Amino acid sequence: MEFDKLQEETIDRIGEKRFAHTLRVMEKAEELALIHNIDPEKAKVAAFFHDSMKIKGGGALEKEAEKYKLPFREEWKEIPSIAHGYLAAEMIKTEYGITDEEILNAIRYHTTGRAGMSSLEILIYLADYIEEGREFPGVEKIRSVAKNNLEEAFDMALGNTIRFLIEKKQKISIDSILCWNERVNKKHEELY
Length: 192
Ligand SMILES: [Fe+2]
Ligand SMILES: [Fe+2]
What we know:
- The chain has eleven helices and no strands.
- The protein has helices at residues 3-14, 16-35, 40-49, 60-67, 74-78, 83-96, 101-108, 119-130, 139-148, 150-167, 174-185.
- The protein binds fe (ii) ion (2 copies).
């Protein structure tokens, strides 16, 4: 994919600052893909578009959802930060003809996770969480775990996110809970 040609319109949509984040997510996604034998081109495409509909403005998301004929879910009204991934997936189908469901799902679920994630989905969630611009206590640890064990790093990231939401008294997507429960069922020895 020729990302250079899409750069301008993407910056128009999401701004310079978020685009800089996007480039860092691409870099991290490619790095992890090469280590863990995941298709690096798919990883880069998913990373490039993951926040491509993270637009601002009251009602803007609902308007875009209408444009792309995506029913606006009740949960997105409750937790507006979830919708941009689903919207981005619809937008790139329509505007760029990207139909690879693995890429689309990695974009849809990059904010919440879900039960039954593919390796690419896990990789994108993580790359978004630990790209080199992120600074929070423990980020270095997750970065280093991610180089050896993507699954374990993902559990740490998801656990952190859920803990963070509880501490901030924010709502948690049902998909994140289902994802967490599935991870626990897989009985990883070290969840934290
Ligand atoms: Fe996002
Ligand atoms: Fe992001």
